[in-house]
Amino acid sequence: MAKPGKSRREFILEIVRGAGATIVGGVIWGGILLDNAAGSLVLRPPGALESDSFLAHCLKCGLCVNACPYSTLRLADVGNGLANGTPHFEPRGIACEMCEDIPCTVACPSGALDLGLVSKLVDGHSRLDINSARMGIAKIDTDNCIAYWGLSCDVCYRVCPLMDVAIELEYVRNERTGVHAELRPVVNGDACTGCGKCEHACVTEEASIIVLPLEIAAGKVGSSYIKGWDVEDERRMKELDKPVTSSEAAEKTLDYLNTDDLFDE
Amino acid sequence: MSKSLSSYRYLLLRRLTQTVILVLFVLASSKVVNVLNGDFSFALFLDKLPLADPYAVLQMFFAGAKITIDVLIGAGIVFFFYALLAGRVFCSWVCPVNMVTDLAGFLRRKWKIGESGGSRNWPRSIRYWAFALGLILSLVFGMTAFEMISPIGIFHRGIIYGMELGWFVIVGLFLFDLLVLKNGFCGHICPLGGFYSATTRFSLLRVRHIKDACTLCMLCKDVCPEKQVLHLVGKKDGIVESGECTNCGRCVEVCDDDSLKFGIRSSKKFK
Ligand code: SF4
Ligand code: SF4
Ligand code: SF4
Ligand code: SF4
Question: Rounded distance, CA B202 to CA A78, Å?
């Protein structure tokens, strides 16, 4: 602030200096922020918004962490590659126990954990439903999962809170021995909540089934492919039909093909 | 009370409130008693009353978040408590980082660091630029910019949940205040301090000065973390007007001549 007696020139200089320092500070500060946001390999509590909005909402208050009866959640420390102070969990340490009353999401004051994302409609009423949580998707490393070697292990299948829904066992003939069957765990990405109980329980030295955040694990088809055998998806086709055939571009192309010019050449 | 103890009466009280708040946070997070649950950006008092840091909520808003009712009410309660009643007491009676920077300030005085030559004079207005920058960066990057780097949150998480690297930030801040700039962080840089400085100048609780009792010993300016606000000392009667005063009470307790007092702002002039 300009003190009385300061000349106009000094005052302007001070403003310029302040603005300069602010820009330098902003660049450094912004760099730190980008670095914090970059750590995308992180599992959030149930009901977490997708990562961009999550960072806009979460106040880092820790109420979710304090509400969790199993000490699953932690707030990220500085410099561990996750957004500083935000809640996350590591299933190999402590997995999410899928509480039916979802105390973590209920406790969140900021909306960073959104009850709407872990509720479903039952008779017209919205009810908590931990099974709608999508914290991540379990992926199996079939090279190291010993069930895929033909050994007998179904630990992940048995600990899964959605046994036979989120993980199924697939019977396959063991080509090596020719006489045995392999019982291979297969994850159903539509049902897996990402709770991480499978990763936690996996018997190999490093887990051979690990939960990855949706943003990393899930692919995206886009709108170019439509399931012809799926009535719902077919409807999408019908909607797409109109603009494509009636578009000016298509008409122009037709007109062009129908003009005599083409034949003249 | 002995004279020496009485000249620390507010300091001791402040350390008490700061410690009690931290202890309450620890007790709630370890599920012993739930009086104050959360942290300095959002907390629930007795599991009911929301309290939120208004600057953090402003950042949420700029980052594009939908503000929930709880958060809005919490921010309102805190904002009006400081702005209308108590002044910038967050910085001296609540914030845990103040204990670190006060310690640095104390050691600096004791070891006479930075008194000889090379007087560094950073403008105290940096905090207002930082305050604005925090909002701009929240807007640009879509996240609560100051909350992401705030030493207040880092300190709190360090105490409650334990941490490793976070302590380097706190130690760095301590060394900065000790060796580089007197009252460096809280008195010059902290955007939250800037926010409260800018919004609490009309609060009821103010320090007032009685010129006739003043012997010009300048003990008050020695201990004050925002000594520019005491420019009226020895010159005129009145209240400390600036919102930069943290109402820490250091000046009041060290003044042997009863020339500085806590008082209530009134429509009439202080007697
Ligand atoms: S659902 Fe239960 S176990 Fe899982 S993170 Fe929330 S509180 Fe913890
Ligand atoms: S309760 Fe919500 S705002 Fe608080 S740390 Fe957890 S996710 Fe963030
Ligand atoms: S993470 Fe594993 S245990 Fe949890 S639902 Fe998915 S497959 Fe089942
Ligand atoms: S004027 Fe007094 S109460 Fe205000 S900050 Fe300075 S020492 Fe503290």
Answer: 37
Token output for B228: 């520019």
Classify A167 as helix, strand or coil: strand
Residue A208 has pLDDT above 90, yes or no: yes
**With pLDDT > 90 as the criterion, what percentage of chain B qualifies?**
73
Domain A136-217 bears CATH identifier 2.130.10.10: no
Average confidence score pLDDT of chain B: 90
Cross-strand pairs, A120: A127
The beta-carbon neighbor of A84 closest among B60, B129, B148 is B148
Going along chain B from its start, the domains and CATH numbers come out as 3-198 (no CATH), 204-270 (3.30.70)
Residue A257 has pLDDT above 90, yes or no: no
Beta carbons of B44 and B38 less than 8 angstroms apart = yes
Residue type, position A71, single letter:
S
Report the DSSP beta bridge partners of residue B262.
Answer: B207
CB-based burial label for A65 (10 Å; 0-12, 13-18, 19+)? buried
Q: How far is the CA of A116 from the centre of ligand 3 (A)?
A: 21
| Domain residue spans of chain A | 136-217
What's the ipTM?
A: 0.90
A202 lines ligand 2 (CB under 6 A): no
Mean pLDDT over A61-80 rounds to 92
Helices and strands per DSSP (H, E), number in chain A: 10, 8
Q: Give residue A198 CA to ligand 3 midpoint distance, Å.
A: 6
Q: How confident is the model at residue B248 (pLDDT cuts 50, 70, 90)?
A: very high
> Nearest 5°: phi and psi at A34?
-60, -40
**What is the Cα–Cα distance from A225 to A228, expressed in whole angstroms?**
9
Q: Cβ(A70) to ligand 1 under 6 A?
A: yes
pLDDT higher than threshold 60 for residue B269: no
Distance of alpha carbon A40 from alpha carbon B267, whole angstroms: 56
User: Please, which pLDDT band fits residue B271 given cuts at 50, 70 and 90?
Assistant: very low
The confidence score (pLDDT) of residue A157 equals 95
pLDDT exceeds cutoff 70 at A240:
no
Question: How far B1 CA lies from chain A's nearest CA (Å)?
Answer: 40
Task: Indicate the top mutation candidate among A49, A54, A60, A72 to test ligand 2's pocket, ranked by most ligand atoms within 8 A of CB.
Answer: A60
Q: Are strands B260-264 and A137-140 parallel, antiparallel or unpaired?
A: unpaired
Q: Strands, DSSP E only, in chain A?
A: 74-75, 87-88, 119-122, 125-128, 137-140, 167-173, 181-187, 209-212
CB B74 within 8 A of CB B52: yes
Residue A49 Cβ inside 6 Å of ligand 2? The answer reads: no
* Contact check, Cβ <8 Å, B165/A79: yes
